[in-house]
């Protein structure tokens, strides 16, 4: 996934397990723990990408994760229906 301004926000590695953020939780970017990884899934093509939390925080600020969905753009060009993923790193 890329930021709307075209900035590459990919993380250097993927997590061991992950789940979809349901939108009911009022969790912010700064509220994520060190071992949690931020990701996104495209609503159109289903592509999963893992993002660098510090780069997203620098570009978007400390936002709620539910508001981050509309700011993500997939490589296929889709901006609607994208989902935020939260993964955990292996120990």
N/C terminus separation: 26 Å
Globally, the shape reads globular
Largest beta sheet, briefly? Answer: 4 strands, antiparallel
In angstroms, what is the radius of gyration? 12 Å
Largest sheet: spatial strand order: 2-6-3-4
SS content category: alpha+beta
Give the strand tally: 6
**Strand percent estimate:** 25-35%
Order of helices and strands: EEEEHHEE
**pLDDT < 50 runs, ≥5 residues:** none
Helix content estimate: 10-25%
Tally the helices: what do you get? 2
How many separate structural domains?
1
Oligomer: single chain
* Mean pLDDT over the full residue set: 80
What would you note in describing this structure?
By secondary structure, this protein is an alpha+beta fold. It has two helices and six strands, in the order E-E-E-E-H-H-E-E. It has one domain (2-88). Helices cover 13% and strands 26% of the residues. A four-stranded antiparallel sheet has the order 2-6-3-4. The chain is globular, with a radius of gyration of 12 Å. The termini are far apart.
Summarize the structure.
The chain has 91 residues and is an alpha+beta fold.
Strand and helix layout:
Blueprint: E1 2-3, E2 17-20, E3 36-41, E4 48-51, H1 53-60, H2 65-68, E5 72-73, E6 83-88
Antiparallel strand pairs: 1-5, 2-6, 3-4, 3-6
Key traits:
13% helix; 6 strands; alpha+beta; 26% strand; two-stranded antiparallel sheet; four-stranded antiparallel β-sheet; 91 residues
């Amino acid at each position: 996934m890329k930021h709307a301004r075209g900035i590459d926000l990919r993380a250097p590695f993927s997590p061991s397990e992950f789940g979809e953020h349901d939108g009911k939780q009022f969790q912010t970017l700064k509220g994520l723990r060190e071992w949690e990884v931020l990701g996104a899934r495209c609503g159109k093509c289903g592509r999963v990408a893992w993002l660098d939390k510090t780069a997203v925080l620098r570009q978007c600020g400390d936002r709620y994760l539910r508001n981050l969905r509309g700011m993500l753009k997939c490589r296929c060009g889709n901006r609607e229906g994208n989902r935020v993923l939260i993964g955990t790193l292996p120990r």
